[in-house]
Amino acid sequence: MNKSMRSKRKKKGAAVKSGAERSERKPSKPTAKKSAPQSERAPRSKPKSNGTTCREQQEPTNKNEKKTTSKGSKEFWSGEETAKKMVASGFFNNNTINGTFKDLPTTKPPLDSCPCFKNNLHKVRAPDCPIPDDKLIKLTHAPDNFICAARVTVPEFNRTIILTQVPDVSNSQNIEDFWRMIFQESVVSVVIAIMPLESSVTLQQIFPLLNGTYSNHGKMFLNNKKVESTVAMTAYTLEILPDGCSNSLLTTIYHLHNWKQKRALDRVEDLVATVEKVLKTNENTVFMSMNGTGRAGTMLALFTAMLQVQKGKEVNPKETMEKLRAERCGLVETAEQYGTVHKAMALWFKNKSTSEEIQKI
């Protein structure tokens, strides 16, 4: 027993001694560790020379965090109050929409008062919607070459707006004249609403569809610079250059390809997004459909309404349509197309507004 106790005491003493030795060595190690971080942190103290505190130096990080968390929320929209007033006034009431369309004027200029249009009926897709000579687009290089395209005045918009039909692709001169018009009028945005193979027309006959490809239509050279697609819209960026000209024009062609003639557009997301882009671009624009009146007129009506709201003005649907039809008869051919304008406006309001009232439309 005594021997075992003594051996235990010896072991315990050795353990205490080794522990004491380790405790004596500890101060040297932390000292070495602390000295290194002090030298690494030294550069951080330099900005203090401008009088800022550590908390002030951290503020930019906090601000960035706020920006990151706020990305999901909607930005302030200048049309918020106008949109609320329009909702309260019954702008989206179905009975009001249908009644307004029935009461719209259908007055058309006499064909005899549109001699140029009358003399080129073989090139016109909608002969019952004549265009007065003072509204027709005329080519400076060939004034006798007829294009079924009308210049339209839009209130509060100081750029050129043109409504046009799809050119008759059976005659190559018509396609050349179309692109000559785009170049002459410095058109930056062209919005086309036609179905694939509608009236046996393909866009490939009018311009190159693949990125990096080009085509020549008479003396007009077209180069496809970029192609971007969404669910129901494809955007083509084209470089347009006439022979003998060194300065080309870049134009974006937006093709809405799921919109049937004389019908409503079932899904309006891409329509709203496209018109928003055109508004933001704020440059000369062409709206085009097969006849240049129905879907083209519907897009113009939506463009005009969105423009007015952006400027803080309530939209009077009847008054707006009366003014537009005075510019180009036959715009918005059916009640379904007229309803598409309101459907698109409703979606646009919801996308922009944080109001619960507007979200219930």
Describe the structure.
The protein is an alpha/beta fold and 361 residues long. It has one domain: Protein-Tyrosine Phosphatase, Chain A (Alpha-Beta Complex). Helices cover 42% and strands 14% of the residues. The protein contains twelve helices and eight strands. The chain has an eight-stranded mixed β-sheet with strand order 1-2-8-3-7-6-5-4, sandwiched between helices. A hairpin with a 6-residue loop joins β6 and β7. α8 packs across α9 and α9 runs parallel beside α11. It is globular and about 55 Å long. The N terminus is likely disordered. This is Tyrosine-protein phosphatase domain-containing protein. GO terms for molecular function: protein tyrosine phosphatase activity. Pfam families: Y_phosphatase.
